[in-house]
Amino acid sequence: MSTVDLGLPASGLAHVPPALGKQSAKDFTTDQEVRWCPGCGDYAVLATMKQFLPTLGIRRENTVFVSGIGCSSRFPYYVDTYGMHSIHGRAPAIATGLALARPDLSVWVVTGDGDALSIGGNHLIHALRRNVNITILLFNNRIYGLTKGQYSPTSEPGKITKSTPQGSLDHPFDPIALALGAEATFVARALDSDRRGLTAALTAAATHRGASLIEILQDCPVFNDGSFDALRRPDSATERLIPLTHGEPIRFGTPGADGLGSRVVVRDGFGVRVAHAEDVDPGDVVVHDQHDQHLAHALARLSRTDLTHVVTGVFLDVERSTYDDAAREQVAAARAQNENGPGLRALLEGRDTWVVPKAGPNP
After folding, report:
1. Tell me: the pLDDT tens digits for 83-125?
2. Secondary structure (3-state) at 303
3. Half-sphere exposure of 100 toward its Cβ, with a 13 Å CA cutoff?
4. CATH number at residue 156
């Protein structure tokens, strides 16, 4: 299918045709029965996504969701767009092919902590380092749900599961730190029940040109029930969640008389640490800059597996050339050379090729 440059901003949606009319959440709702367990965090993410998609103003036929294997990977059945329920861990690879071949598509990957970080680990990190123009939603419930409760690459140490009856010995992945280490250009984290924060992350990711990863912390009520309850309860959430807002000082905790949080984030050598606001000079409080890669790495290390502190929001949003744009430029240049000269033929018939002579008559 041929595409045209619509003259839109240089973002993730630069070549995607706009919708013909106003759309609503109902337009993105399929006739399929949603088959997740009651109370699953995936319901909240699905509801937020259906409300969010119409705001992009993209035609449903120009939107595609690719998933792997796992509970989260049922997602393409429940949004009325194009989609593919692919194979275990390979969703980023399939999405890469789509992004390369079809710049007129808004390409999304839906995956889980087991699907993306175990068998799919290499596909994930290479899609991120190549900066393919796709948006990856990584649902993290820190357990294998579809296969009935084994520990996953993000399960906390000591986690007792069917596959670790005496407790997990593994040190878990931090998806944010992993994505930053793979040179991703957009990295964010949100909580499934925080519709406002999740919508903000989705909006920023969708308009970013390049590989975007959003880690979504979500509950598995059957095999890891209450795993993130400490981040939801009003009595503890304010002391644990550290929200990021670009250009704003990083403050959290119970507001004081000044209406500001009682805790702050300050520099600590090459890293950052949490401090009581009353113990530091206001000028020492870190102001979040989502374009600062060094700060993003430091903030990623601030989160704790035991949920003492969990940083949410956009960690990093920087520009870098995308793999799919560069590949299309190469193809266009090769075609131009072929039209104006030997081009591809010279390459195919270069010095590393030879002609096999026709066989002559047998002696």
Report:
1. 999 999 999 999 999 999 999 999 999 999 999 999 999 999 9
2. coil
3. 14
4. 3.40.50.970
User: Using CA atoms, how far apart are residues 98 and 316, in angstroms rounded to an integer?
Assistant: 25
Taking Cα atoms as reference points, which of 186, 184, 219 lies closest to residue 71? 219
CA atoms within 13 A on the CB side of 65: 22
pLDDT tens-digit series, residues 252-270:
999 887 878 899 999 999 9
Residue 163 placed within a domain: yes
State pTM to two decimals. Answer: 0.90
What the block records as the tokens of 360 is 């002559």
Task: Please list, in sequence order, all residues whose beta carbon lies within 8 angstroms of the beta carbon of residue 282, skipping any fewer than 6 positions away.
Answer: 249
Angle value at C-alpha 242, between 239 and 270, nearest 5 degrees: 115
Contact at 8 Å (CB) between 92 and 123? yes
Tokens 């699953």 -> residue: 40
The answer to whether the beta carbons of residues 185 and 315 sit under 8 Å apart is no
What digits encode the pLDDT tens for the residues 210-266? Answer: 999 999 999 999 999 999 999 999 889 999 999 999 999 999 999 887 878 899 999
Task: Let me know if residue 298 belongs to a domain.
Answer: no
Structural domain harbouring 141:
25-227
For residue 312, report the phi and psi dihedrals to the nearest 5 degrees. Answer: -125, 160
